[in-house]
Specification:
By secondary structure, the protein is α/β, with parallel strands linked by helices. The protein contains 9 helices and 19 strands.
């Protein structure tokens, strides 16, 4: 299949080109039913002769090109309507006019959509007419506010603008924190466009196509989440991010705008003669992750927890974990090493310790705890393992 993408240099276009080239190269192991042997990219720099050649060879067309904030309002008509007409006329002359996906807008359905919405409605009518005349399938997507990697900040995406500014420590402006936006993540749109390419687009009762997964959030909610993300290197606190959640998608978007200079975050290392302890990540629902370093011959721990439990995984070195149930004398010993990683549970009501058995090398241990350490309620009580 040969796929033509207009507006290939834009936000949606760049993401779609990436996804199609993953399939074309055989690197996509999910969409195995799709065979794509050529991705043809149209941008404003594409020569006219090549443009007409593309139209004659295309088996499917994603028409993404358009403008929504031109300096000259006449560009709405020239770009959104005029270019759509030029494209469709060129496709009509092909031996087998291909299916066409049109990227329209929710503003096309609004009476108050202004010149932009009106131009998108006219582009929709032209696309519908193309389908009636040629018999080719047409898919009109009235897209809402898109967000994700490569969206252009300071243009028409408040999420991109907020991400760009907050990730650089710059102030943002929120005029109405209660204003709600319908938002769609770029990768959710990509999955839908691949379904469209397979001939199974999602359609509503009116016949328009849509990408499942849009959500409504206020500007205040978006700003608060992004601000929390920006503080994560200091707080170590990760928000709740269930699979498929808006929070997870927004975090991925935020990180795509993070300057590389801020991608490396120094951690606070608590050191003493025994070694060191470094907290990595925290989450109110899932506890925290830390790294413990024990110097040669050192024993650490010798305490118990009433409710909290932990999992120890030795990453490097050779050690011994000992646990004893409170009120009993029997001690369980578990040899651990970086060569044979083993997850060992530190059980509630058991005093426990970890000893570095090496006389020369430090012992590095990854520790997950079921709750964030609270110095006001530590749930940690000293008691030796050996009686």
């Amino acid at each position: 299949m040969k796929v033509l993408i207009t507006g290939a240099g834009g936000f949606v276009g760049k993401n779609l080109v990436l996804r199609l080239r993953e399939i074309c190269s055989g690197h996509d192991s999910v969409h195995t039913s799709l065979y794509i042997d050529e991705v043809m990219e149209w941008t404003r720099a594409t020569p006219e002769n090549i443009w007409h050649e593309y139209c004659g060879r295309a088996d499917f067309v994603f028409h993404l090109a358009g403008v929504n904030r031109p300096e000259d309002s006449g560009d709405y008509e020239r770009e959104n309507v005029g270019f759509t007409a030029t494209l469709l006329n060129a496709l009509k002359s092909a031996a087998n006019p291909p299916p066409v996906m049109l990227a329209s807008s929710i503003h096309a359905a609004e009476n108050g959509g202004g010149a932009y919405g009106a131009s998108k409605r006219r582009a929709e009518r032209l696309t519908e007419e193309y389908g009636r005349e040629t018999g080719a399938q047409v898919m009109i997507y009235r897209l809402c506010n898109l967000f994700g990697k490569w969206s252009r900040p300071e243009y028409n995406s408040v999420v991109a603008t907020f991400c760009q500014r907050i990730s650089r420590g710059l102030p943002i402006r929120v005029d109405d924190s209660e204003k709600k936006l319908e938002l769609l993540y770029i990768d959710d749109l990509m999955e839908e466009l691949l379904r469209a390419l397979e001939g199974r687009p999602s359609r509503d009762q009116a016949g328009y196509c849509y990408a499942p997964g849009s959500v409504y959030r206020t500007l205040g909610e978006i700003a608060a989440l992004l601000t929390a993300f920006s503080r994560q290197p200091e707080t170590l606190m990760l928000p709740d991010m269930p699979e498929g959640s808006f929070e997870k998608k927004l975090y991925a978007t935020y990180l795509s705008y993070l300057p590389m200079a801020r991608a490396a975050c120094p951690l606070v290392v608590h050191r003493d003669s025994r070694g060191s302890f470094t907290e990595l990540l925290k989450n109110r629902r899932c506890g925290q992750v830390s790294v413990n370093r024990a110097e040669p011959g050192v024993t650490r721990g010798q305490h118990y927890h009433n409710s909290k439990w932990e999992i120890f995984v030795v990453l490097s070195g050779l050690g011994m974990i000992r646990q004893r149930k409170l009120g009993e004398e029997a001690i369980t010993e578990i040899a651990v090493s970086g060569e044979n990683p083993t997850a060992v549970y530190m059980l509630p009501g058991y005093t426990h310790e970890l000893t570095n058995l090496s006389s020369t090398e430090p012992l590095l241990t990854l520790i997950w705890a079921s709750e964030i350490f609270d110095p006001q309620r530590p749930d940690t009580y000293w008691q030796e393992v050996t009686l």
